[in-house]
Sequence to fold (83 residues):
Amino acid sequence: MRIDGIRFGLAGGLTLGFGVALATFISYYSGHGVDALTLFTFYPGYEVSILGAGTGFLWGFLDGFFAGAFFAWIYNHIHRYHE
Fold:
């Protein structure tokens, strides 16, 4: 069975993008999250704010997309030799 790299990348990108945006909104509105979201400080332009949620979504989407597409490529490459 092959994995479609584009679709798997889209699924990973949307999941991570929405996850970062949701975590940002929760942190922004609860007032506790500035220190809690230091995990995402390697995203240029990211901050805990409304605009930062959009920036975090874009960076999260890119990370998730390329990670998912890469995973699918690795899986398909390994699976090809074990058929």
Summary: The mean pLDDT is 88. The chain has three helices and no strands.
